[in-house]
Design a protein that fits this description.
With 643 residues, the chain is an alpha+beta fold. It has two domains: 10-229, Beta-galactosidase, Chain A, domain 5, CATH 2.70.98; 265-641, Glycosyltransferase, CATH 1.50.10.10. It has helices spanning 101-104, 242-251, 253-292, 320-333, 336-349, 406-422, 428-431, 434-447, 468-487, 491-512, 534-538, 546-556, 576-584, 589-605, 637-641; strands at residues 10-14, 20-23, 34-35, 43-49, 52-57, 63-64, 66-72, 76-83, 86-93, 108-117, 123-132, 145-152, 155-162, 181-186, 189-192, 196-205, 210-219, 224-226, 229-231, 294-298, 304-308, 368-369, 573-575, 615-617, 623-625. The strands form six sheets. An eight-stranded antiparallel β-sheet has the order 7-8-9-10-17-14-13-12. The protein has a six-stranded mixed β-sheet with strand order 6-5-4-11-16-15, with no helix packed on it. Strand 7 (66-72) and strand 8 form a beta hairpin. The longest helix has 40 residues, at 253-292.
Length: 643
């Protein structure tokens, strides 16, 4: 039976925030591929059968192949197309394997191709797959492009890039890379010109399937400015180059393909066991999406840093309240990456310019990790580079206090560090930053039980006083600090903060259960999802009784709209990550499935042709804003609370 996996946008070549290209249509021949930000960046495919040309990816003036099936798994998007008497299966496979971080961090995607004759006769076929050199520059003005072809062992390579390279030449949100080199590597023909880099596979299609592959990759030469030092992707920490990785990916083609298929099967089986078929669809849509919103680099010290980009938000890099919702995927499948998310924030928080007793919001604007830009008094327009805040001293007056997120970020950092240890990550990073953690827990002690008017991660909703869900974050943050202290044998501190978390939880429970529905604010106004409490169940913190969670999640069911559970009573919009966290609070599979089903419906029916938006209207399925963001790692939270 034909399988048609429908998403608002289908992942094609999806590796990192710059190398992120999608098909914004139901079928691969209905639109041009785009960068996540919307710029047309053609990755295209054709097949010529007995001299007749058919398009199978992108928009073409020739005949169009018929789409027979579409399948999206965590690592792969597969199209099966009928071109006259020949059937072509083309799969874009990005090996995001959390047990192999060198492979995961390499900006290479395989394109697998299989042809078979469907009429019993033999047919001469030429399968072409290529990419526009627009992938090498930002904007519409085409610069001077150079390129050539060369041979490396059994591989033929073609590349193109700007003749003048300005590495790390801009910073912002809706921009694409404006430096580096686009590559195809293949055992078949490789060709380049000023407008395209492409490969061709010539084959005789018979009743017996024939297969080949190509690899598309990008040499960015430098990935991130990390506090003044240009740093490269993690795979380079061994001394490997992109050419070495092409060799390795070719030599290990069968091995990597099998590893991807095994990962797909494992992740989807995990999802189905927790919450059924709808949840499998959500998880399949989120795997590459989440990883591709990050860049995994080697720092100057040779350590891992996993840096997110706030796609379609403000372009910030290493945002704490974007990392926090993404952690469930990493905790489940590679907890050391949660340390890699935390490392840049901890390093910046220890610098003189960050003189506050609460945690930072971010560490810069992509691809410049050079100091927090959120709430900076001197902003930089999109494309320009912010001031090097990391160089400033403690006397610098850099930030506007009103637009910080103090309770939010303190709680986030303590939860991230504790949960990483809980799931088996190395504790060395936490052991090096006791001073910062102590400041943050003291801040939560003073201001977290009943937060004053301030922002939380849902800053688009504005400032809010007496925020119940933000208080929940403070409580789990304090408890997580006690967990860390206990882990390191600091039992006096552990006991003190354990008692404080218990006290805060008792106060919380007494105040939110005065009415039938737990409110949005402690003065009894409205209602909201209490997603921050998930950690009580994930880490068995023992803060609130299980009966509370059963009543809480049952109260969500009457509020479900066609496409989801609203974030709170102020609007009918929602956040998909928090919806999945709300489902994770449920004590039974049926309630989980009921909360998750509208999210799957949103993916199947939304008319917003953007990569899985996390902020959309629950009544219409139209996105408000935000796309291709790292927070979709949060859809894995139900896997962490499932027992």
């Amino acid at each position: 039976m034909a399988k048609f996996d429908r998403l608002p946008a289908l992942p094609i070549v999806v590796n990192d925030p710059f190398l992120s290209y999608w098909m914004p249509a139901d079928k691969p021949t209905e639109a041009h591929t785009i960068h996540w930000a919307g710029d047309k960046k053609d990755i295209y495919g054709t097949i010529t059968v007995d001299g007749v040309k058919y398009g199978w990816l992108g928009v073409h003036s020739c005949k169009v192949a018929e789409t027979l099936s579409i399948e999206v798994t965590p690592t792969t998007t597969r199209f099966t197309m009928q071109a006259g008497p020949v059937c072509l299966t083309a799969a874009f496979r990005t090996p995001m394997l959390p047990e192999d971080l060198e492979t995961l961090s390499t900006p290479i995607t395989y394109v697998d191709m299989t042809v078979v004759s469907t009429d019993g006769a033999s047919h001469e076929a030429v399968v072409e797959v290529g990419a526009s050199t627009k992938l090498c520059y930002d904007g519409n003005a085409m610069p001077n492009i150079i390129g050539t072809t060369f041979k490396r062992g059994a591989l033929n390579l073609a590349y193109a890039g700007q003749s003048q390279q300005h590495v790390l030449s801009g910073s912002g949100d809706h921009i694409t890379i404006d430096w580096g080199y686009l590559f195809w590597a293949t055992p078949n023909k490789a060709m380049t010109d000023p407008h395209n880099v492409r490969t061709e596979w010539e084959v005789t299609a018979t009743a017996e399937a024939a297969s080949s592959y190509a690899m598309i990759g990008y040499e960015d030469t430098a990935s991130i400015n990390y506090f003044g030092v240009p740093c490269r992707a993690w795979f380079t920490h061994t001394g490997a180059t992109l050419m070495d990785q092409f060799d390795d990916f070719a030599a290990r083609y069968d091995e990597i393909k099998a590893a991807c298929e095994a990962l797909d099967a494992r992740v989807l089986a995990d999802a189905e066991a927790v919450a059924g078929e709808d949840y499998k669809k959500i998880v399949a849509a989120s795997w590459r999406h989440t990883f591709a919103a990050h860049k995994l680099i080697a720092t100057p010290k040779g350590e891992m840093a996993l840096l997110s980009k706030e796609n379609d938000s403000n372009g910030c890099i290493g945002t704490v309240d974007v990392s926090y919702p993404s952690t469930p995927l990493f905790l489940k499948y590679c907890p050391e990456l949660v340390n890699a998310l935390s490392r840049p924030v901890l390093e910046f928080a220890a610098m003189p310019v960050w003189k506050f007793d609460f945690a930072p919001h971010d560490v810069g604007r992509y691809p410049y990790a050079t100091g927090q830009v959120y709430a900076a008094k001197h902003d930089a327009k999109c494309g320009d580079i912010h001031e090097p805040f990391y160089l400033y001293d403690a006397d610098s007056d850099v930030y506007n206090d009103r637009y910080q997120m103090p309770v939010e970020e303190c709680g986030n950092m303590l939860v991230m560090l504790a949960s990483a240890i809980h799931f088996g990550a190395c504790d060395k990073l936490a052991s090096e930053h006791f001073a910062s953690m102590e400041k943050w827990v003291r801040y939560l002690d003073i201001y977290g039980e009943d937060p004053g008017e301030q922002l939380c991660t849902d800053d688009f909703a504005g400032h809010l006083n007496h925020n119940v869900n933000l208080s929940a974050k403070a409580i789990v943050g304090v408890k997580c600090y006690a967990y860390i202290m206990h882990h390191f044998g600091r039992e006096e501190a552990a006991a003190k903060w354990d008692a404080r978390a218990t006290e805060m939880a008792a106060s919380f429970l007494e105040r939110v259960t005065r009415t039938d529905v737990t409110p949005l604010t402690f003065d009894g106004q409205g209602w909201s999802m209490k997603y921050n409490l998930c950690w009580d169940l994930v880490m068995d913190l023992g803060l609130l009784p299980k009966e509370f969670y059963e009543k809480e999640t049952k109260s969500y069911l009457p509020r479900l709209n066609a496409y989801g559970l609203p974030l709170d009573s102020r609007s009918d919009y929602t956040k998909s990550d928090w919806e999945c966290w709300a489902a994770a609070l449920a004590q039974d599979k049926e309630t989980k499935m009921a909360i998750l089903a509208p999210v799957a419906r949103y993916l199947a029916e939304s008319k917003s042709r953007v990569p899985f938006s996390d902020w959309y209207y629950t009544t219409s399925g139209i996105y408000v804003a935000f796309m291709a963001r790292s927070v979709q790692g949060g859809v894995f939270m139900p896997m962490l609370t499932a027992k």
